[in-house]
Amino acid sequence: MLTKYSILGFFLIVFQTNIFAETIDILITDKTQDTEERVSNGKMDNNDAALDIVYEKNNQQLVGLRFENIAIPKGSTINSAYIEFVAKGKDSRNASFIIKAESSDNAETLTKTAYDISGRTTTTSSYNWDNVPAWKKNEIYKTGNLSALVQEITDRNGWEYGNAILFMIEAGSECTDSGCRRRAKSSDNSADEAALLHIDFTPPPLSASLIADYKLDECYWLGGANGVNGDIVDSSSNKFDATSVDRIDSEEVDYKICRSGSFGDNSYAVVDNSFTLGNQWSMSLWIKFPFVKEGKRYYILGSYPDDGDLPVFQYNNDTLKWGIYDNSKQLQWNDIDNSLSGWHHLIFVNAGAKTTLYLDGNKVNSIDLGTSGNVAYLWSSSDDLSGQSIASNIDEMKFFSRIMTPNEIKTVYQNEDNGNNYNGTPRNCPSCDSTTISAKSWELVGIPADNNGKSVEEVFTMSGTYGSDWRVYRRDYSDTNNSSWNTYLAKTDLTEFGKGYWLGSAKDDRWDVSSLPEVTYVSHSDCVASKCVEIDLVPVSLDSNATPPDDLKGTGPYRNHLSGFVGLKKPVNWKDCRFIIDGQAYTPQEAEENNFASRQVWLYNPNGSGANNNGYTTCADNSPGGCKLIPFKGFSVELRGPTKNKTVKLLIPQE
Question: What is the value of pTM for the model shown?
């Protein structure tokens, strides 16, 4: 098995995400979470219309304010923060307070247990709220900047998006008696005028949390043929490439950005090295609606190796639903617009035991289930890989290791809807008219064009100096024996249609055939497609099985003929090609049975698993997973003795 394949026209480009400041306001709505603790005896009071800061009558007390569901991703920069109060009454004496926070990843709820505020560990940071102005009833007053406290909490290793923070207010140096109190409205008094926490923050760049990014811009996928792994490329730095299974077409007409993947009923992908989704994650993708309706079948976006799937869709009585099948085999459904048509952007936000769907930048609804684990499959489920595939067009699928904020969700949607990358940088679509070659390497190449009469320098549009930076060799064959050799070509030498060439390069480079004429395909009685094209093969010169047998002159009984695949758009199945021997068509199997040729082809991939000492791997018309001829690639076929003195051609179907 090959472990990697260089998909044509694909380049890795990494950009930094655009970062914007965001603000959130969190109001205390739970009447038990703005609480007073009497200093003298620890008695707790969470049922008071007034929040007495920090004296009630002559009793000094602590005030605890617990704010829940703080939507700040870990790694954010806290620019500013304050707590806002609505005055319950008039208080005018000088006052000063000290504000701290509980040193906790996720502050637990306040209870009636004595000393439940003072018994908690506090942050290193604190804020001296000095020179508190006089308060007038129903006026709004704010603390100073509490960003240091919030930053200390959100920087903790265990902080997660949606956790809670508890603030504690105690008497300052100028607050020695009840005259310094300030009375604020509590959640018991007015749900809309309780204490409010305002935070201005800048989330970390999304690129820092990018796990995998499947742009689906490749020009083709092999569906497991040729033993090639990793043909669906993860363009993040993590390289969680996936291997396509069955037929996934690269769609160059119907896409959201550049190209898309068109998935059939049985097509999906296996992640070569599964990646982990933790307790919190986000998944972004574009889907072409509607799905092909097939009863109550599931359309699944991916799965873990055991129980649990990525989000799933189903038509139930012609009504489209989305659902979560979690790691405990629980399944819940919620609604999604049944009239969806065309391309739409979806982001699923997994927050522990809750998953929220956003459609085209806007929140739709949630399901009280979540999933986590190692993602092993994409676009189907491990329960039934060939029967629960997504069966639609997919584009721009990516995973993030944190919860995306609503502003980030809207921004990603707008960026991609405008044809840019998720971070707003321009997308440079790969060309399927070109291919790349790595520095200090050799490639066995085919020319996917009508190159007859075109010189080396006209075909191979490489940079640098020919001969030193790059060079081309042609395989030539003896007329008197079965030997062959590689001939170094001058840049003005003409190339031949259907031949394989050795291309070597001293540096990373690329070449394209956009300026060359397209291949002319014609109808042929033996063609399995609507049209085919023939390429010439050079038969053996000596036949050791003849009567009497030829003297092979030490050159071996076979001729290994280097050919080049001439198709540009997509690979073709080797089993659909035909050997034409003196006008008679033979499948690869039939050619081997009649001893004209081997049913195998040899593909050059020196870094592939299973490559022989010469860098070749083999596949045949009956190979598990299939065997395909690939654009811009050459291949070798083995011709045998009975082809001597015969006209031998290879019939290749149009992609």
Answer: 0.88
